[in-house]
Protein 1
Amino acid sequence: MNKALQAVRGMRDVLPEESLGWQAVESTLTAILKQFSYAELQLPLLEFTDLFARGVGEATDIVEKEMYVLNDRDGDSLALRPEGTAGCVRALQEHGLLYNQTQKVFYRGPMFRYEKPQRGRYRQFSQVGAEVFGFAGPDVDAELIVMCQRFWEALGIEGHVRLEINTLGSGGARQAYRDALVAYLTPLRDQLDEDSQRRLQTNPMRILDSKEAATQALLAEAPALIEFVDPESVAHFEQLQNLLQQLGVPFLVNPKLVRGLDYYTHTVFEWITESLGSQGTICGGGRYDGLVERLGGRATPAAGFGAGLDRIALLQEVVGSANLPKLVDIYICYGGDLSGAAMQLADRVRSALPTLRVRTHMGGGNFKKQLKRADGSGADWAVILGEQELADGTVMLKNLRNGEQEAVSEAQALQRLAAASPHISA
Ligand code: HAM
């Protein structure tokens, strides 16, 4: 097939049935974010490439090899955003919203990374992210984590994810550890895998994340990050653990968790599932107290997370916890030339039952054909309007699942539909 008629590799079409799952995840997450008083910040998909180089870090995989970069007609180098945090800081800073004030915002939408596509990993994927500015304490870290826990509970996947947390300490502690790790690994360089050899120069802490068994064996004797962490960060981390215990959120301390973006300090965390194979991280985040300053602002404590919608929707599907609406709930059939009356009836049904999806038959045909379509649409109910019903002021209400039908007044039909539809009050 002509290549131009296929989706670009790693760019996915989310088809209508799957979209229902997505919308359910996105609306659940954003409803909870609003409950926690986070406000939406809508950000552009394009930013100057340099924002990510400075924000996420030159030596990270994301910036080094995964960005979609283009030159616009002015010769500026722009990048499709690979993540949301840098753009969020840029926007709040640019609009003076970080000066002497606190902020709690969320964003959603597509991110782009040129990674090797596989199940759960795409080149265009979607995140819901939250960011908080102006609070230095562990209570904010805990609130972000609790909010995630509430997401998973609302989606029925809380039994399929685990929370891993770690502390990277202050920027200075991180640098001291980095130096110690390089000093330890440099004599062993030849025994490291190829990726780790490269990272030894560029981003040594990412070696801790290596999936290679031989590299992990060498790391067993390496200096431990926690030994370098300053006492203040240790206290912050202990308070966070204390809060999580009080709030009943189970966690595991993973001393090797470092995350793939350079801006983190202190707390980092990931939510991981075993049900999606190797792409099991459904959400990741942490504190990034140095980023605002690094991007030209005043030193501002900050923390946040990004949750991957593609993976969350996939996980819900895998564990069967999705409780999805149908594409069509009610199918309206009509006789002869009553299409105008049928469309009016459909409008009244939509006004009375605003959460239900009402489809009016289109394209003519006898009742038999229309009812076949009604059945094929997945709707549970057909509302049938014929000449007789129109004259009597009634409709024929047919339960498409058991085939029973009855002539009732329109008001009665609406009452029965309301009573029979579980998501009507949603
Ligand atoms: P991240 O860990 O790079 O963090 O991405 C967050 C989440 O996005 C991941 O846990 C994963 O669920 C999803 N994700 C990442 N890459 C892909 C992909 N190629 N395909 C599908 N899903 C993917 C960040 O982006 C940070 N900005 C999070 C953050 C916000 N930290 C502080 N504030």
Protein 2
Amino acid sequence: MIYLDNAATTRPNENAIKRASEFLSTAYFNPSAMYKEGFSVQTELKKAKLAILSHVADSAFFDVIFTSCGTESNNTALFSFGKRGNVVTTEGEHSSVIEPLRELKNRGMIELRVAPLQADGKVDEKQLLSLIDEKTTLVSVMHVNNETGAINDINALAKTVKKRFPKVVFHSDGVQGYGKIPFRLSKEVDLYSISAHKIGGIKGTGALIKRKTLNLRPFLWGGGQENGLRSGTENSFGIKQFEYATEEKFSTIQEDFERLKGYKKILEEGLNSEVYSCFHFAETSPYIASVSAKGMRGEILQRMACDKGLLVGTGSACSSNSQLLYSHVLLACGVDKELAIGALRLSFSPQTTEEEVVCAVQILNEIALSYGKVGIQRT
Ligand code: PLP
């Protein structure tokens, strides 16, 4: 089996699981317990916090709140700071940003303003800035798009926004950026959401990186864990496994980035150009390639590829239940409907090999030729 759906989730890092299991087998105490065994677990969680943070930000200015996933991190940020005035976001956001903001709008709490994307997949900066005014409380712009891989320069955007409107809170969904794009957070970014399972961590662990001086309101209330900002007994296994997975992931981040760029090129150059169009979005993550077969349907190609042992995505796995045929992100980039309906997302991990990519190209070319010959009507 060739797995090229790593933007949906990655295979957990086994070494990190082993180390976290060893940790949990002796340090299983409640981190809030008032005896030394509990304190020592708490100390280990603090160590994990600093390690996870140190890869992308300065601990003098930023803090980490552990959550259950990227979705919770996004919801925590948006429900805390999107309470009044207007909130500005982009057309490319993941449903875990769009839906909470729609909910806040439906509750009559905010006016929602959505900036368009450019043809290269990035947010249109001019339009974004034109939507921000004195009543804007929050701006949320994703770092790396989960469907196209387009990278927004969030440090530069946050700087420009803060220069004009210093009180605005700037949030970024960094779920597809953390551990993949060599980068450090500037002080102008207030909040950055991350998720463990996209980089070899296990599902059910996420974090919200927060500027220290920002007054966040909790999303979950209860026992006051995480300095009162996220109640609930900490997922100590998941957190330690996340820490260990980041150690390995960040130690090769630059070389992985360069190698995967090469794989993406092999893919794009190897696909039959009479059938497939590759979306060459500027400055994209080498972890994500978006391709489309005109006149065919992505979910059918996906099934045909699966039958041949190749697992790929069609769009955001999180929106597959809603049976959306068109990716809202591709349409926002100006891709026509006929192409958008045939979109496939191929996403890599550092474990992906060149042989797998070459084989994936072969399979994709084969299935495109047999499409229509197996009782499937072209659209
Ligand atoms: N944001 C982006 C850009 C994503 O790709 C995803 C998951 O696919 C999420 C948020 C949600 O993360 P999680 O699955 O950890 O809730």
